[in-house]
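hey
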């Protein structure tokens, strides 16, 4: 509790969870990691541990030092040389595994491609030759703005083969967002497509590139893959069709011998201020971090068919659709479109069709399926699934249980993985053959990760309490900076607690030491001097049978400082009534205590989300406090804000 001002402020821990799920003996006995001793080995000597792991990569030249740490600047495996595309492709083909499937690709309209490692290597070499012909050299930046088609991972890998850092801009972003990123990165070439398919309709990409390039000056060429066949404007000399240039190229391209700390890619993430941050990831540490964690957390075996149902435009796609699965010679699924096209059975059809064994997705998708009901999944044979994953937001315990029961059929372990664009790799997660899970908890930091939960002074809080998550030691895939802005890098991540990395998330540890992520620190509410996380109250609401999804924000209140305002989406077929609103308020009070009782419950058909599926609490705060709506440019559907505003039915506290 945080009653006095200069006390060591923490975050109240309210929600309790007693359900536990231990790994079955059947799972444990076959798991990649089944010995809990790995934590001790790693933490005894983190550098020795990562150096040992680094044997899973192929090096042209071994490193001189494992870690050089001049906080907040890290160098991992300095002096070493390697190439990412070689590690993802060549070494598997050279080992006689060229016929293994790298990707089962499925377009939204239903077209399919099966791409082997050998084919992917040939395609990547052709694309690397094509980019060279366009003048791309080691160190040049390339912007990639594409739908989820096979040319996207090919383009990324071709850049890594040349040693030209790429910056992938999510295809749903506007031309303005694209030109900002091109300008910040000073990109020389843009790789795009005519358009992509989303919810059954072609949407234009090239048209946005044309617009973006009106306000950029560095781009010499635009390489355009043909996907939808829609009409596009054309600038002779600048624009080239992918097929015209790439298809005729040789399938040989000598990979560049990159230094460990050479920049691999830039990925922009939005901050609280308008200017996006170009997160810098480098070569060796990043590839090692993602490859190792992919193998451990997803228990990757040769027989697996692994599907990360995310967009490659986000870090999840970079790390766990492209680089790690390929480095591990995994067979993956890539699906171009949305889960509801042509209907809510699409995902379950895909799992049945390719016999997917591992599914990794976001809580927002799980809650969307939950809202529709389990009937869609029930029509399909999901028995191939043996492991489920979650990423992107805290997963509410009841959404976890729904995933467990209806998708995992009560059998498969669930790994709730906490990490960020900045961390590059999974940081806090169960090891499915070792960890006893609790629904809603990301459990423990992975081996080699030194984390803590601290109060406002940076002192570790006792078990059972909430506070602020910090990472205490460097890790291989950590961001190396914000592109061109070392001061902002220091100020954003390293100034709150000197020497410690501050991710910006609240967290509590329960009596057993389990980590429970509590959402962004900026979203923490202060109600009568109690710091309350939005996550726990949302989870309490979702625990009610009628609720599919909830978003909680603080609303200015003259009496209590802030009051709790809850937006609630009901499950299909449930009627919103004032009585139900009162019932839900009481339900929360009963479940986690009267302090957490929402003052207002507002029923809404939908919630404003970022394009990566995170609830935009900033906008909801504006609505709750009757302020004018802020910037909505990262909204999934701007109409949602209006519909929420118009939603008339809200239940207020009557005392
Ligand atoms: C933020 C990072 C990591 C890839 C996708 C998002 C939240 C992420 C979890 C989780 C609770 C989570 C955090 C984090 N987050 N995973 N398992 N439990 N919160 O990457 O866009 O950089 O967002 O997402 O708040 O800081 P990102």
């Amino acid at each position: 509790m945080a009653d006095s001002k200069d006390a060591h402020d923490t975050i109240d821990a309210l929600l309790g969870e007693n359900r536990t799920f231990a790994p079955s003996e059947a799972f444990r006995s076959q798991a990649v990691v089944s010995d809990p001793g790995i934590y001790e080995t790693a933490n005894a000597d983190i550098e020795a541990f990562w150096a040992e792991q680094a044997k899973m990569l192929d090096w042209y030249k071994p490193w001189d030092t494992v870690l050089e740490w001049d906080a907040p600047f890290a160098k991992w495996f300095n002096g070493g040389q390697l190439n990412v595309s070689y590690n993802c492709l060549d070494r598997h083909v050279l080992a006689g595994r060229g016929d293994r499937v790298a990707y089962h690709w499925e377009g939204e309209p239903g077209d399919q491609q099966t791409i082997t490692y050998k084919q992917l290597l040939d395609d990547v070499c052709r694309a690397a030759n094509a980019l060279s012909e366009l003048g791309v050299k080691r160190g040049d930046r390339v912007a990639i703005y594409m739908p989820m088609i096979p040319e996207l991972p090919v383009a990324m890998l071709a850049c890594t083969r040349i040693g030209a850092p790429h910056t992938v801009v999510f295809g749903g972003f506007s031309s303005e967002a694209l030109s900002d990123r091109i300008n910040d990165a000073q990109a020389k070439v843009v790789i795009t497509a005519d358009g992509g398919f989303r919810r059954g309709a072609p949407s234009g990409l090239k048209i946005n590139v044309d617009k973006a390039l009106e306000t950029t000056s560095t781009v010499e060429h635009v390489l355009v893959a043909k996907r939808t066949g829609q009409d596009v404007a054309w600038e002779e000399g600048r624009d080239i069709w992918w097929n015209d240039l790439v298809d005729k190229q040789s399938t040989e391209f000598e990979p560049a011998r990159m230094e460990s700390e050479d920049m691999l890619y830039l990925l922009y993430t939005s901050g609280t201020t308008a200017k996006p941050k170009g997160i810098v990831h480098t070569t060796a540490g990043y590839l090692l971090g993602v490859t190792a964690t992919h193998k451990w957390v997803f228990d990757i075996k040769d027989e697996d068919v692994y599907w990360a149902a995310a967009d490659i435009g986000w870090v999840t796609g970079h790390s766990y659709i492209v680089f790690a699965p390929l480095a591990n010679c995994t067979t993956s699924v890539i699906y171009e479109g949305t889960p509801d096209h042509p209907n809510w059975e699409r995902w379950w059809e895909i799992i049945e069709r390719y016999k997917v064994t591992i599914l990794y997705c976001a809580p927002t998708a799980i809650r969307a399926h939950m809202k529709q009901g389990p009937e869609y999944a029930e029509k399909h044979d999901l028995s191939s699934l043996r492991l489920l994953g979650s990423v992107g937001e805290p997963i509410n315990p009841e959404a976890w249980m729904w995933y467990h029961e209806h998708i995992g059929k009560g059998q498969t372990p669930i790994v709730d993985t906490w990490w960020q664009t900045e961390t590059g790799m999974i940081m806090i997660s169960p090891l499915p053959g070792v960890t006893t899970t609790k629904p809603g908890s990301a459990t423990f930091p992975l081996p080699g990760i030194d984390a803590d939960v601290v109060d406002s002074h940076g002192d570790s809080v006792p078990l059972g309490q909430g506070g602020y998550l910090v990472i205490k030691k460097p890790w291989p895939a950590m961001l190396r900076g914000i592109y061109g802005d070392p001061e902002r890098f220091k100020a954003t991540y390293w100034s709150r607690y000197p020497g410690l990395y501050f991710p910006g998330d609240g967290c509590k540890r329960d009596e057993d030491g389990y980590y429970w992520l509590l959402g962004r620190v900026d979203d923490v509410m202060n109600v009568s001097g109690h710091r309350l996380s939005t996550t726990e109250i949302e989870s309490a609401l979702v625990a009610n049978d009628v609720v599919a999804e909830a978003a909680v924000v603080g609303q200015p209140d003259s009496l209590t400082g802030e009051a709790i305002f809850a937006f609630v989406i009901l499950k299909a077929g449930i009627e919103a009534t004032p009585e139900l609103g009162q019932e839900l308020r009481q339900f929360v009070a009963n479940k986690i205590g009267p302090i957490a009782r929402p003052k207002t419950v507002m029923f809404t058909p939908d919630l404003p989300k970022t394009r990566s599926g995170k609830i935009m609490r900033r906008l909801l705060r504006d609505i709750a406090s009757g302020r004018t709506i802020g910037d909505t440019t990262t909204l999934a559907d701007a109409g949602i804000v209006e519909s929420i505003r118009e939603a008339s039915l809200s239940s207020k506290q009557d005392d």
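The pocket of WT7 is lined by residues 269, 314-316, 391-394, 416-421, 442, 503-505, 517, 520, 612 (CB under 6 Å). Residues 1-5 have pLDDT under 50 and may be disordered.
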